[in-house]
Write the structure tokens for this entry.
Amino acid sequence: MYPEKVITATKNWIINVVVACNFCPFAAREIQRGSILYDVLENADEKEVLEFVEKTFQKLDTNLEIETSLLILTTTYNDFNIYLDLIEKAQLLLEKNKYEGIYQIASFHPQYLFAGTNNEDPSNYTNRSPYPMLHFLREESVSKAIASHTDIRNVPSKNIAFTKEKGLAYMQQLLKNC
């Protein structure tokens, strides 16, 4: 699989799903600014991914032009439960390296499943992506964005309402088109 193809699919997902559906009211700005770093890891085992997570923290430390970073995993971590274990270990690494309060890690996965939902619930598509990925965000920027949004508390419920109104087939097609 070619990294350029993976990055293109990811950018399509951000533009045509995340931004177009307004799942994240802050994503469009970063797309326009070109401040998103895209890294692709193929066939990476857990150790390699966690080493790359540490490198991502260091990249963010030294390059303030990068607002947010996506680590895209193409051929591993397709099993959602194994992926959740990886997310937990990445979060522990964030805490161990004293980055808590500096960076956040968000998760996106092709089989994302919120607790209490089933695979047929369209609301899962707010976090379903073309590939498993870890999303690194600057905590300070997240806090500023939240403070500047007039109705941030209702964003999740609006996202869920949107996906349910559009329906499962619509959300599946959006993701497939990426």
Summary: The chain has one domain: 3-176. The mean pLDDT is 94.
